[in-house]
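Repro:
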Amino acid sequence: MWSSCHPKSDDDLKECAELGKSLNRLSQPTILALLAQSDTPLHGYIIVQQAAASPMFGGKKPDATGIYRALKRMEEAGLVTSVWDTPEEGSAKRLFTLTDKGRRCLRRWIDALACYELTIEELRADAARALGIDLPDTPQCAH
């Protein structure tokens, strides 16, 4: 089931074009969390597939190119490392692993996301006051 938290298509966004688009940009903490919970290094393809199932993407497959760009930036920042997996059959693929610096970064994300949550709740209250309505209950978003 789709909700305003995860619009199903661009058509769902026409009335308020920015609604729901910016939250999907939080790919870094999503990728870090996926790598942190994995016992083994992950191929980029697997990261894309697992990200689709994460709360940030709500079942919608993220842009693979964007995920690979994020992985490259994260590797340059020392948050992840990668090695080439070159099987005898098939194409070579990179395997990504979280570094200690990446774990520390994910820990900081935990606090940052809590702060974002508080800020967003304050914004909801301001918006409701501006409309002269009671603050609606927090919706249960389908993930």
